[in-house]
Design goal:
With 615 residues, the chain is α+β, with helices and mostly antiparallel strands. The chain is 50% helix and 19% strand. The longest helix is centred in the N-terminal third of the chain and has 50 residues.
Length: 615
């Protein structure tokens, strides 16, 4: 009986606890699968306590799962951002095309900020193309016409700070922003924008390069995180844009230099810091037919004419040792075996610390020029010989005229005696005396002209003897020799620090002596005279200026004053019109040129340009 009762009780207890245990089991399964597990009701207290613990565990599990999923999503998002930034950084480091650079920056920034539209406006400084302005460089999220049809962004209260590089402009809702609406709001048809973010692009030197603008039709899409992110991108973009502009500038200068070389039919080459030819030299190889193995070092000299080779190498080494501009001429054998005459100009390219990085030189073919100059010299020599012969032959009949005039003059007393008592005697005697005086004046004038022609002819045929000239001392000596004339005219002569040259002393003294004499002769009467002689070296040439504050020369006569027997202005000073013609002949014979700048009533400046060294 007791056994039967116990069995019944046991069965009842088993049935009473089986349901709560099954519910606990279901809760545990739900917990394991991450599903909700509510607390059981109507069960024994012990079971209810366990159920509550399971429910709490389930809630914590869900919270941790949500946190992990959030963290995973944030990690994926950050990983994507880092990948975008990494790709952008690589692109910015290597991209030198402004358009592709702007497109990469705008596309990356638009993705990172979640913007609907992104744009990069570039500032174009004032230059030869026109005044400063802004232009749309890159755009994403909308067709270009969506911006360009409205022109450039207006300088509104909201925009102005961005385009003045005043800092970041962030508006969570522009329609509620007090800075918005100063120009009547958005134009009709404009892209819908509520959230707005703008960041200026400023170079390391402080120059404004452009501005990044982002928009979204929904409000509160941009915050401080996006603003900081775009600021960082703007800094990277500024460096890249600076590099792109620098590259473009260098490329333009390189293209201009190469065009200039082509314009003068030049052959461009480079040598190392020690003056030896290295690396690929395509222009030199095309000219001479030499291979790199043949022209390397001083192998290039093998293409120079044997008679010019030693002098070329010696002068080149001297220029390299002295770190100065190299100017030379020699004959070079072309790839077809023909020798041509080339003028060489080479300069050292320096690093910021002053060390020579390389030498850049140009060979310019001047064969036709030198041939023409030789023909011109021969023609000039013929003209000089002809002038000498003509002048010499003119002197013979002039001497006869002078002799017959003297006889007529000596016979005047006899003629006067023979005509004594005749009615017209006095008139005939006066007419005869006047005619003789006219003939004598004409003879004197003709004799002076013949002497001038002979002088120019002799100067053109004279062999110059070059020697080093201390120009400051030489010109000071010429000024001292004319000090009396200068003081009489009330003039002061100042001689500056002049560069020395190697040239013919007599020719140089005649050039500057004539110019100083002319300056003294034609000073203005209404003010104290001032004559200054200055000089400097420019592009390997000696440039001298002889300036005065005298009468000046009319612009119509600037070229004529260098012509033989031509003078300008009031003829109240003695002269025969050969001084400046003689000066120009001498300057040209020395391989230089003379130029004139003058204004009536202000003064005149003669500029004489001469080689530093005469051959």
């Amino acid at each position: 009986m007791l056994a039967a009762v116990a069995a019944v009780l046991a069965l009842a207890f088993a049935r009473g606890i089986a349901a709560p245990l099954q519910a606990l089991r279901d809760q545990a399964v739900a917990l394991g699968r991450g599903r909700p597990a509510p607390v059981l009701a109507g069960v024994p207290a012990e079971v209810a306590a366990v159920s509550a613990e399971i429910a709490d565990a389930a809630q914590r599990q869900r919270e941790r799962t949500s946190e992990r999923e959030g963290a995973a999503a944030a990690l994926r998002s950050e990983t994507q951002r880092l990948e975008v930034l990494n790709r952008l950084g690589t692109a910015l480091a290597s991209e030198l095309d402004r358009q592709r650079l702007g497109d990469a920056v705008v596309e990356a920034a638009t993705r990172l900020t979640g913007a609907a539209y992104g744009a990069l406006f570039e500032r174009v400084p004032e230059g030869p193309e026109g005044p400063e302005h802004w232009q749309l460089l890159s755009l994403t999220g909308a067709p270009r016409e969506a911006f360009t049809r409205f022109g450039l962004p207006r300088v509104t209260t909201l925009f102005s700070e961005t385009f003045a590089a005043g800092g970041v402009v962030l508006s969570e809702d522009v329609t509620n922003d007090p800075r918005y609406g100063s120009h009547g709001g958005m134009p009709k048809g404009h892209l819908p924008v509520r959230s707005y973010l703008a960041v200026p692009v400023v170079s390391g030197t402080g120059a404004t390069l452009g501005a990044l603008l982002f928009g979204h039709p929904e409000s509160h899409r941009f915050g401080s995180r996006e603003a900081a992110l775009v600021e960082g991108l703007a800094g990277q973009a500024a460096v890249a844009m600076d590099n792109a502009r620098l590259f473009a500038s260098v490329r333009r200068e390189q293209d201009r230099f190469e065009a200039a070389v082509q314009a003068v039919r030049g052959v461009l080459w480079t040598n190392g810091p020690d003056g030896r030819m290295t690396n690929e030299q395509p222009a030199w190889a095309a000219l001479t037919g030499q291979t790199p193995e043949q022209y390397v070092g001083f192998g290039w000299a093998e293409a120079v004419h044997p008679d010019d080779r030693a002098a070329s190498v010696e002068s080149w080494n001297a220029a390299v040792a002295e770190r100065r501009r190299y100017t030379h001429e020699h004959r070079v054998r072309r790839h077809d075996g023909v020798f041509r005459i080339y003028a060489i100009q080479a300069v050292p390219v320096l690093d910021p610390d002053g060390a020579i990085r390389e030498w850049v030189g140009v060979h310019s073919d001047i064969t036709e020029q030198r041939t023409a100059e030789a023909a011109l010299r021969e023609s000039n020599e013929e003209i000089q010989r002809y002038a000498y012969i003509v002048s010499h032959d003119l002197r013979a009949p002039l001497v006869n005229i002078m002799g017959f005039t003297s006889e007529i003059e000596a016979s005047q007393d006899d003629i006067r005696t023979a005509l004594a008592g005749r009615p017209e005697a006095s008139r005939i005697d006066a007419d005869l005396a006047e005619s003789v005086s006219f003939i004598k004046a004409a003879i004197t004038k003709m004799d002076g002209l013949i002497n001038a022609i002979l002088k120019l002819s002799r100067e053109g045929r004279r062999n110059f003897q070059s020697e080093p000239l201390a120009m400051t001392a030489l010109v000071q000596g010429l000024a001292d020799a004319q000090r009396h004339q200068a003081e009489t005219a009330g003039a002061a002569i100042a001689i500056g620090d002049l560069p020395g040259i190697t040239a013919d002393r007599v020719a140089v003294e005649q050039i500057f002596g004539n110019l100083i004499d002319n300056a003294i002769k034609y000073l203005a009467k209404d003010r104290p005279g001032r004559i200054e002689v200055t000089g400097a070296v420019s592009d390997g040439l000696a440039v001298f200026h002889v300036a005065d504050n005298g009468r000046g020369i009319d612009a119509r006569d600037h070229a004529r004053v260098f012509e033989l027997f031509r003078r300008s202005g009031t003829q109240d000073r003695p002269g025969d019109g050969i001084g400046l013609a003689h000066v120009r002949t001498l300057v040209r014979a020395l391989g230089g040129r003379i130029d004139l700048a003058s204004r009536i009533g202000e003064g005149t400046t003669f500029t004489v340009t001469l080689p530093l060294r005469q051959p």
